[in-house]
Amino acid sequence: MFDFTNPSRQSIKGIAVLFGFNSYKIIKSLFLAIAALSYSFIKSGKVFGMSQNKMIVIVFSVFLVIFIRSILQYLNFKFYIDNDDFILSKGILNKEKISVSKSKIQNIYIRQNVLQQIINVVQLEIETAGDAKAEVKINALSRERALELKEHLLSYKSIENKGLELLNDTPKVTAVYYRASLKKLFLEGLSQNHIKSFMIIVGFVGGFYTSYEDYLKQLKLGDKFELLVKQNENSISILIVVFLLILSVTLIISILFSLIKTFLLNFELQVIEHKKTIEIKKGLFNKVAIILSPSRIQNIEIKNNRLKRYFGLNTLSIKQAMVDKKLQKHFSIIGLDRVQVDYLVKKLMQKIGLISKQEKPEKYYIRVLILKSIIPILIFNLLSFFKFGNQFWIVNLFLVPLISVLIYWRYRKAYYAIKDNMLIVGSGAISTITELLEFHKIQAVATKQTIFQKIRKIVTVEIYTASKATKILYVKESRANTIVDYLLYQVESQRKDWM
User: Fold this and answer.
1) What are phi and psi of 91, to 5 degrees?
2) Which of 117, 206, 267, 365 could form a disulfide with 361 if both were Cys (CB 3.0 to 4.6 A apart)?
3) What's the pLDDT band for 385 if we cut at 50, 70, 90?
4) Could you give the CA distance from residue 220 to residue 233 in angstroms, rounded to a whole number?
5) pLDDT in tens, 36-53
6) Out of 164-173, 321-330, 438-447, least confident range
7) What is the mean pLDDT of the chain?
8) Is 14-153 a CATH 1.25.40 domain?
């Protein structure tokens, strides 16, 4: 038994955790500068004229300051329970005191990153109804102490009703409903949207090039590439081969990146079914376990694409109210077949059934998509001009058909349907996204209209919940007014709690 009525500190191991967090923040924010200085040091043995010994002293001094700051953070961090309030004080120079009423607590997360796993402590986070970020974070507690603190904070309410998220805590498990195999993780990584991975890689390569520009110039890779282009400027086939080779290498790297990311986030993914909730457990370096309560779920998204459908894979993404954005990425279940998707949707929301009538946006939406595509086409043509010169137009042999197909897919997949107290909205281009929203979770409905839409009497309807805004794109004014009136009537007549 632990006494939480008297102010106490976290585990002494918290100094190591704070030191790790503080060091990581500094290295992350100064990564490019550190990379550039490291390259300068490796090349000449000096940085700004300073010798190796001086650099070691400076680096040691920086980490010593971080260590001292971590100790002061640990000493000034205290927490306790005072009747119905949880009190936390922290800060070195600027003192801060946070008071959280038990009745306002919405979520309690107990998590572990790699460092916390190594030194055998957990991190406890408390979220309240007034913020989408964790109000309180305790970085280093023993598992027993964290679980007992959780019991004290939620002793007045049912754990299931509060949507409690725990790590390695099994409150009356009914069964493991679903477990993702290594094969499914591999197929999921293989069938991801690699455009996102490509953009991340481009950003990384851009930063890397900025830091090591001088070294890359010494290799004269750009000169060799330009020489190849000039030697074959009259041979379109060679240029096409070079372009395809670049695309192939980029695609392979993007696929590898997606595979690694999928394995890290979803390692040992399990869905555990409780009486009224489901629990998601997953993660390799950052272990999380999240209990989802139907009362707090605002939206559900079902995602797949052509390749995923071939493999029989679907992803279920759950949007919950007031969740830290960093944690929201874990509110998803990958590798599900259609039967499993339908069962979990019914468990968390309600049975969908067949959608007999799908209503499409007005074809004005196609014009909007075409106009939006002009900017990326111009950018790619400009970049191609700098690399290929007068042969820049070759990029359009691939770009224009690709964008045309994406526009066609985006319009084809866009629809909305109203069925059984639920709004269903379809969207996506490469991916197919089906969004589900129950009427009683709606908090506001609005209409938006540009000058050009007003001329054509077209409106976009926006439906707001506690987690996000859902859009019904480009419908006729008369139909939009009918939709708004109907949704507001349903919200008022059902009189159900949104949480």
Assistant:
1) 115, 150
2) 365
3) confident
4) 20
5) 667 666 666 666 666 677
6) 164-173
7) 80
8) no
Signed CA dihedral, 164, 169, 172, 174: sign only: positive
Tell me the residue type at 284: L
CA atoms within 13 A on the CB side of 255: 10
Residue limits of CATH 2.30.29 in the chain: 14-153
